[in-house]
Amino acid sequence: MNYIGIDIGSTCAKTVVLNEKKEIIQEFVQPTGWSSVDTAEEIHQKLELAGINLSDDSSCRVATGYGRISVPYADKTVTEITCHALGAVHLFQQPDLTVIDIGGQDTKIIQIEQGFVKDFIMNDKCAAGTGRFLDVMARVLEIPLTDMESAHFKADKWASVSSTCTVFAESEVISQLSIGSKPVSYTHLTLPTTS
Known about the structure:
Blueprint: E1 2-8, E2 12-18, E3 24-31, H1 36-49, E4 59-64, E5 76-77, H2 80-92, E6 97-102, E7 107-113, E8 116-122, H3 131-141, H4 148-154, H5 166-178
Parallel strand pairs: 1-4, 4-5
Antiparallel strand pairs: 1-2, 2-3, 6-7, 7-8
Helix pairs in contact: 3-5
């Protein structure tokens, strides 16, 4: 028996396969692209190539994320809020937690009590403060995303940059570059709170 988890998010799709001993035997990450349906089919093909048979009852398949309904071979679909809660409780062995998920297009804050979701909030108006926001800032500044934090701590002064809109922030950063500001000078970005 294999246990297959497929998370088709707004920008990235993640797949993990566990065996009966709950050991990871297959895992891969890929861009979601424009079509969750196409991404689900690509995942299906990758699993088949890896020798994971999806046509019989030797696996349990669960899909989550924005594209969860695009996975026709899933036995069950579960919201990412529920998946985050169950995963966090399992990983940390704590029944009361707060999970912060900075996703590609939204940020979720999930309050967990006694192992279950008590409440959650998420931004729903703009991708500001999300993974996409950070990705755009890293690209414009020509700083690898993994170096954004260290660049922040090297800064000796900061320019004010909009944190309510990714497009506005990108425009403001480009303007700062055009007047000669150095990237490390304005890598301290104040991310917005969720709406």
